Amino acid sequence: MRWKWQEILLPLPPRVSSQATVQDVIDLLAREESRVAFIYEKEKLVGYLTLADLLKQVTDASSLTQPIDFEKDLLLVRETGWVEFCHNCHIVAGVNEQNEAVGYITIQEAKDTLTRLQLEFLNHGLNSAEIGIVTTNQQFEVNFMNETAGQILGLPRSILAGRSYKNILAADVEMEAILAGDKKFGVDSSFNFKKMTGHFSPVYHNGQAQGIVHVFYLQEHLEKAVSELQFVRELSEELQAIYAASNEQILVIQPSGEITSVAGAFLQEFWRPYSKEELIRLNVYDLEAKGLFEPNIVDLCLKEQHRVSAAQSNKQNINILSTAAPVFKKGELEKIIVLSRDVSTEEPLQKKKPEDENRDTPNFMKNLVYRSLVMTELVEKIKEVAETDSTVLISGESGAGKEVIASRIHSYSQRSNETFVTINCGAIPENLLESELFGHEKGAFTSAVEKKKGLFEAADGGTIFLDEISEIPLHMQVKLLRVLQEREIVRVGGLVPIKVNVRVLAATNRNLRKMVTAQTFREDLFYRLHVIPLQIPPLRKRKEDIAPLALYFLDELNAAYKKEKKFSREGLQLLESYQWPGNIRELQNVMERLVVMGRKEVISGDDVFRAVWNTETEESAHLTVRGIMPLKEAVEEVEDQLIRLAVGKYGTAAKASSVLGVSASTISRRMKKALK
């Protein structure tokens, strides 16, 4: 146990000028009935004078009117600091934040006071413990017992004091052997029909055994404690497993900033170079001062005195989303619980160009934002593919990010310094598509007043990306096939083939194999395109990417619209519970709606719910089935979505169970199963 100086300081002694005489100080100490006086020079504390020092000066002085001699071995300490001792000083003076003296104590008095407080604390602890303690002398006569021992034995200290402990206690132990230096642990004993378990040890003084000590507890209390401990251990292991499975890190932090516990999934990359064990006992304020992370969410929580959420980042640009919640006990802040999850991306984001800083509308750069394993594997495959000039067919649902993947293939390739041309084949009228792709000669048709290069020529030396390749009409597919085979094009109205050095990337959200079977897409063109197929998983299949994407869009939108919006934990969790049929494009649109339409600085769960599900409509929501799956799996998937949605909206299993018409235990059980 530690004490602060303000807990042991004595009131300030009388003060006197350094120019005072011996007679002045004698009169002052007699009048104030004090043993010490503080000496000041121009309102500054410079020393002290004790009664003993004064008497010595009276003896040695030729006159009581001569100036006093005072001691200067005075130590100034902050009154709120912990008590610590140092050499070469006799008196300690406590000062406040304005450096004004508020109390004093001699070093010896401080040591005596601390000894007394420690003994009182120990005595209180012994009397409050569920453990009985009995000591005896060399004749085994009881000479001490704490209150708990009296409660267990059923007799007070006044009755048992002086009685032979050897005779009244039934125990399978030789007390003479204990007195001779033996120790026995886990010994069963009984007294007055009460069964106990405890330890016997000798009590030493100056190296000689002066008696024995018996430390014991009721067996029924032990069994109960073991049972409760097992329950707590199992519960702790269960919670640890749940939070580890959900990639959540839990920190327990004292109001002073000291980290006392780390549980769940430890975010090693964020706390580098500290390990989980090294982090305990460190102070978040010290770590913040070292620049390890920003902002300090503990400090934000202490200032707000309620739960706060914030995105934090470290020097390596590892981003985590944290929520800090204060825990109060009897009105006093006891600790702060911080839940964190890693929302950083696996690739560094491109830096904004200076000209983008003052844009009026958001400019979402072709950044590949992800942290899921499936996208990590896809990116590794992209890097391998980029090293060649092979044709790539990118498949995926609408809005899944096919153009971003194509752009990344180009940027990884040896053609990255050349032109990257994109065209949406479904967005151009059929009668203009051929001219756009291959160009035309002057007079090729009515409006062809001059010669024009097509996109294939424009992409010469670089890469062309054909989005929605499935929308190209059949007669155009023949000409595209020739380009892929011969690497040459013929302009509309032209006769001379033109060689082009271009890499072709294509994308579709349709099943080209089925289109080939239906004879709406040429089989030979399909195989020319299907050299290296890449499948982009929909956003609902990679939920780990939702939070990083949402935070990326939030940063871009904040910069574009001069906002400072932040996400609440509930808001982000609700985004993750949604299925996103429109994939990343839908998420981007929802984020823009939340930033533009939201009035509050923090985007709450209610804001997300209104933006995504539009609860103001009176129509009931309908489920959308996007593929065939076993009926049992479909039912489980629907139940899982409903439970996540309800918990995300209403916050607790109890409220969610009421709305869904099931028990709270069912909700908890299904959530636990989902986490596993």
From TrEMBL:
Source organism, top-level taxon: Bacteria
Organism for this UniProt entry: Bacillus aerolatus
Domain CBS: 9-64
The keyword Glycoprotein appears for this protein: no
One Pfam family named in its UniProt record: Sigma54_activat
Any single biological process term in GO: regulation of DNA-templated transcription
PANTHER family per UniProt: SIGMA L-DEPENDENT TRANSCRIPTIONAL REGULATOR YQIR-RELATED, TRANSCRIPTIONAL REGULATORY PROTEIN
Single GO molecular function: DNA binding
Sigma-54 factor interaction domain: residues covered: 368-596
Family matches, as Gene3D superfamilies: 1.10.8.60, Homeodomain-like, P-loop containing nucleotide triphosphate hydrolases, PAS domain
The name this protein goes by in its record: HTH-type transcriptional regulatory protein TyrR
UniProt entry keywords in alphabetical sequence: Aromatic hydrocarbons catabolism, ATP-binding, CBS domain, DNA-binding, Nucleotide-binding, Transcription, Transcription regulation
